[in-house]
Amino acid sequence: MTFPRPSRNSLRADGVRLRVVWPGHVWRSWKERWFVLDGHLLKYYKGSGADGTSVDTTGELKGVIALQGCQVTTCEPKEADGKQCCFKITPASRKVYIIKAPDVDTRDSWIEAVRVNAGLQMTGGEGGASSSIDLMGEADRAQTKNAVEGGDENVTLGDFELLKVIGRGTYGKVMQVRRRDTGEVYAMKVLKKENIFARNDPKDLQHTIAERNVLALINTQEHPFILGLKYAFHTPAKLYYVLNFCNGGDLYYLLSRCKKFKEAQARFYAGEIFLALQHLHKLGVIYRDLKPENVLLYGDGHVKLTDFGLSKESSTAETFCGTPVYLAPEIWLRKTYGFEVDWWSLGCVLFEMVSSLPPFWGDTIKDVYKKVIHTTPAFPPMTPECQSCIERLLERDPARRLGSESNGEGIRVHEFFAGLEWDALLSKQTRPPFKSKMASSEDTQNFHKAFTGQKAIDSVTDLSALTDSQEKHFEGFTYVPGSAPQGAGEPTPPPPAPSATSSE
């Protein structure tokens, strides 16, 4: 079999086979997969293109290997079912990828190619001081001025009419705005740069930039249940994110009105949230902050996952972040963690939807910690299928947690979701349990009057509050559709190397 050499941006293989080995689990059969090496991510697809000789990147994406910080070594035959010319990729997570090459030269070339891309700096990383990280990279830095779809104008605050305040947060506020030339209504998140540096914590800056970059990454493969980024721009004093406006409120607001959901209603929302999380994981993103407040409801009643300030572009992470009552035990214990933390949070949200309170609610952080680490939640009356799903999502061992294998496929086939038409759900053909009656696309009745009663203005900020070195971190922040989503610049080209085979 002939194997082509990987180019700078793509690594392709005919008859590629990939095996995923999980501690405590039985090795699975070798399966054919097609690969694309995309910067710090190694993506693998199920099928080839129509010609049978190239990868179909529009087809089913089976998974993503985050290469940053991974180890890649040769693999003894005894580790690969006796197969020769194998190597393994070991990310910081517990998964091990065994890859078989047709010959030694091919294997060695692949090892070198992966090592080169594993050394790329990722956007919004958690390590290092803010003065030493390159948050944007040359590709995005060149994008400080971008053309809008169908035109050549630059997006500025002047392109929008400020309508109402719809929320406030730690660093700024969210306003409902209208684009002057098209009349389209959006939500505009405004952050003061000086507030981002106020605590002298580099993670505040990293989370802010990570949100921009994760949103831009999501736009490369849009999803019906994720709120994507329309534009991002900045002034000397502030950062501006422009997103689609969701006027249906959020899941927390809906729960506060209903107290709790029927299981069929909870199944609908849990299903849409699951599909959104699964998509993020395929892009190599750990969400880390799932809670009802971050699940917005669009005007049609379907969910939109939002607020990506804590999202991590990696298959693993080590930082303590998120909302305490929804955090997985491995985060509390400050262990390296992976996508499984999002499935734990889904279990917490599902429990709350059918019982009205999170499973590990406590009056203090210490109480929450003790409950998450040591106790089992008391289940109110519910069907065995629902309780089983929650119990398996709240498994303390991440390797045994429901959803830990095959990017959540165990959740999809769990008996609690039996009868749910996943394709219909994804295409929004399933009727939502609730749908707000809106007077217009600008209706804000589902937002708190404490916010909507405030005057929507762009407040004056001290322009001298930032140093030149602080301001430099925001070079390349601007984004419009078509901008490069990468925050770490163009990937370093790996040396020529034939592709390989692997197993799943």
UniProtKB/TrEMBL annotation:
<feature type="domain" description="AGC-kinase C-terminal">
    <location>
        <begin position="418"/>
        <end position="489"/>
    </location>
</feature>
<dbReference type="InterPro" id="IPR008271">
    <property type="entry name" value="Ser/Thr_kinase_AS"/>
</dbReference>
<keyword id="KW-0723">Serine/threonine-protein kinase</keyword>
<dbReference type="InterPro" id="IPR011993">
    <property type="entry name" value="PH-like_dom_sf"/>
</dbReference>
<dbReference type="InterPro" id="IPR000961">
    <property type="entry name" value="AGC-kinase_C"/>
</dbReference>
<keyword id="KW-0418">Kinase</keyword>
<dbReference type="Pfam" id="PF00433">
    <property type="entry name" value="Pkinase_C"/>
</dbReference>
<feature type="domain" description="PH">
    <location>
        <begin position="10"/>
        <end position="119"/>
    </location>
</feature>
<comment type="similarity">
    <text>Belongs to the protein kinase superfamily. AGC Ser/Thr protein kinase family. RAC subfamily.</text>
</comment>
<feature type="domain" description="Protein kinase">
    <location>
        <begin position="160"/>
        <end position="417"/>
    </location>
</feature>
<keyword id="KW-0808">Transferase</keyword>
<dbReference type="InterPro" id="IPR017441">
    <property type="entry name" value="Protein_kinase_ATP_BS"/>
</dbReference>
<dbReference type="Pfam" id="PF00069">
    <property type="entry name" value="Pkinase"/>
</dbReference>
<dbReference type="GO" id="GO:0005524">
    <property type="term" value="F:ATP binding"/>
</dbReference>
<protein>
    <recommendedName>
        <fullName>non-specific serine/threonine protein kinase</fullName>
        <ecNumber>2.7.11.1</ecNumber>
    </recommendedName>
</protein>
<dbReference type="InterPro" id="IPR000719">
    <property type="entry name" value="Prot_kinase_dom"/>
</dbReference>
<keyword id="KW-0547">Nucleotide-binding</keyword>
<feature type="region of interest" description="Disordered">
    <location>
        <begin position="474"/>
        <end position="504"/>
    </location>
</feature>
<dbReference type="InterPro" id="IPR017892">
    <property type="entry name" value="Pkinase_C"/>
</dbReference>
<dbReference type="GO" id="GO:0004674">
    <property type="term" value="F:protein serine/threonine kinase activity"/>
</dbReference>
<dbReference type="InterPro" id="IPR001849">
    <property type="entry name" value="PH_domain"/>
</dbReference>
<feature type="binding site">
    <location>
        <position position="189"/>
    </location>
    <ligand>
        <name>ATP</name>
    </ligand>
</feature>
<dbReference type="Pfam" id="PF00169">
    <property type="entry name" value="PH"/>
</dbReference>
<keyword id="KW-0067">ATP-binding</keyword>
<keyword id="KW-0597">Phosphoprotein</keyword>
<dbReference type="InterPro" id="IPR011009">
    <property type="entry name" value="Kinase-like_dom_sf"/>
</dbReference>
